[in-house]
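ligand=zinc ion
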Amino acid sequence: MFQVSCAACNASFEYNVDDYIHLCPFCSSGFILDLEEGAKDIIGDHFIVPNRMDREQVEGIFYDWITNRYHRPDKVKNEFQILGSYGISLPYWVISVEAHTFWSGHSQKANHYRGQGNEYGARFLKEENRFSRRYRWSVLARKSPKEHWGLERLHHPKEDVLVDWDGFPLDETLGIVKGAGSASVYDARQMFKFDHANGLTISGVQVKESSAISRAKDQIQEYHRRIAKTKVGTLYEHRTEIEIVGIHLVHLPFWVVRYSFAPKSAFRFLTTARERRLLVQGHSLAVLEAELPLSSADKVMTNLVVCGSLAVLSLGLALFVHPLFFLVTIVFSGVCVLSAWKIFGREKSDSDVGRGADLQEPAA
Ligand SMILES: [Zn+2]
């Protein structure tokens, strides 16, 4: 094991070779160690948002959440079971940015009057515009966003755009702190101290600021390109200038809950009974990500089984009673094919998980 002495209080402790910033367990200082020179560089802006939950509260949040969604609230305690839960305080690089986007493109005209000319292009309208946004864009300072369930796509954009990145605007994503006006999770930050984790494990910092910044820039570029695309028929050009206003490190608390669903009705033969999960914010207590007990795939599966049986039945009738039943067979088979296609082509998601405050006002 490797020992290092703290750059602030001189106490020595074991350090993890994968960490970029070493956190002293005695005085909570963070510093970067240059292994070749032996130099230590203390970092200044390191905050932590205190964890406010314990296992019992997490359980309460889970049962509230599932009771509001399950069609038989009275059966919830019978059919759902918590398998386990844990909390973890994860490091994020929080990057304050202003992003300015210019875009241009063509849209089809809504009305095209007779006599307006019919030459190619006359039906289209050239459009261009710009928009600006401010974010506290957060990038996980761990090498893998797959380390804990649910961290990969926390960003739920307001616009109808598809998101496939792990960074997110902190204020809108992590929920509003109840009982504190409409304060965001970020507003609850304090100077980093191990004590504020309130019992959670503190996860080490593995990622450098520079790589967090370049990832945030890529993600915002892509996000703004997709927003611009929603505004115009064909997007020709877009430019996003990203201004980095500041960067600091914030440890944020999360809880992962594992639960099982075992329906007592005949429906149990149609669901694939497996473990499902929930990601809860440890300060705002908002449910950020969730696997629903009944995915849409399960519902479509029911459809598939029912229509499949009817198809077989009508085939029998067609062969032995009247050939017209073939038509019915074709209809039910069609529904079966569509159902199967839906099951394999879709992903389940919960559309209204808890969300929070918004920092999307245009930058000055
Ligand atoms: Zn120390």
